[in-house]
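pipeline/complex-builder :: batch 7 item 3
reading input block
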Amino acid sequence: MANEIKITAPLDDAAVAKLKAGDQVSITGVIYTARDTAHKRLVDALDAGQPLPFDMNGQVIYYVGPSPAKPGKVIGSAGPTTSYRMDLYAERLMEKGMKGMIGKGMRDKKVIEAMRKHKCVYFAAIGGAAALIARSIKAVEIIAYEDLGPEAVRRMEVEDFKAVVINDIYGNDLYDIGKAQYRVAK
Amino acid sequence: MFVEKTLDFFGRFGDNNSFKSNDFNEFWGLILRTIHSDAITAVVKKMVMGANFDLGDDVILAFEKGLKREASPVGRAVLGTLIENARIAHDEQVPICQDTGMAVFFIEMGQEVHIEGALLQDAIDEGVRQGYQDGYLRKSICDPFTRKNTGDNTPAVMILDMVPGDTLKITAAPKGGGSENMSRLTMLAPSAGKRGIVDFVVKRCEEAGSNPCPPVIVGVGIGGSAEKCMILAKKALLRHVGEPSADPELAALEAEMLEKINALGMGPQGLGGTTYALAVHVEKHPCHIASLPLAVNICCHASRHKEAVL
Ligand code: SF4
């Protein structure tokens, strides 16, 4: 992809500041997975004053519930799930240092505002391109909430994981920009 | 194997243990064809795996057509990626999408079919259980309150229609949560008419935006009762992608809605472009004089179906 930016996860403020809505990125490094029920548990832990199962500082959270790995594979298919369901929890994790989220679909205004405040970016991966995306995941380990099955929290080592910046820390939204560009005026 | 059997006075068959599928039984002059539930389980198992690994040619063709028409380079790249993804899934026999769906089945059961063995729902659930296990498909079904996963992707949803004949047609249509969440039902006033229908469907797509993994297929049900209308919308998704309705009035409505939806500019994955929807499929049914029910059931590009006739 033209003008692809290579980034390494976890992220720091300087890396986040360089990203703009519309940038194509290739992510290499360590990311963590969490989706619906895992988010609820993470935030419940924070409410109860308990530690999180991993240090959130600088982390990129991937909203995914992979399919089971076939024998000999590290993971099954693993594309993004719809992000708005995590909107309620996102700012709490940003307060703990989360620097990136990978999912698909629009975020709430409040989350976009929180991203600006806490310097966190939102990436989209191609929803449904799950067999292809799995190829960029090199190692997987369940680190918490194993009872949740597909929803368990996993630590993933990724290499050249393709995504696009939807919301940067400057308040831009690629979904709005893209739509405005191709809208046929009525 | 064709074996004639007669019922005894109490309605029991003479030699109950020896039935095979394809047996024919006479029930006071009515010929019934017996299908054993094991045959249903076996075919369901195969279908849920096949549907999740092999995207239909009609969907791939729709991607290719979209690729030619799509104005945005990013949109074209997305469509190209989806074609590649479908190829990998097929070659490696892995799921197209990690969300291998709630297992939905449309069943057309011939009136002359008699199912022997397990209950139809149980036979289907067993096929789902085996297919999702052996096919390494994701188990995505949970209790609505506790969110505890049932662990085997059951229960399946079964929509049963009785039809003439002696065959059992099963269509597996596993459906992902992301696109299913974008469904809506509205009970319009009859005065809303076609204008109201078009406006609602277009607005629903705009609100759904990038959530249901566009490019999508938009299923629309018009008429019936509330629940019938929703079923119509889902049934509309079973049609080959882009095949217009046989009813010219509905076909025109489909074309109008498709144009308006794509004119919104959302494009593949909502990143901007001209191919948000690959097709709009409309089904209608008579409704109450007080009502104009309208249902929208959006299907993502991972539009997975498999059919079998027993
Ligand atoms: S909406 Fe469809 S393609 Fe997207 S994640 Fe869900 S099942 Fe997969």
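note: The pocket of iron/sulfur cluster is lined by residues A 79, 81, 127-128; B 97, 99, 176, 178-179, 212-213, 300, 302 (CB under 6 Å).
queue -> next item
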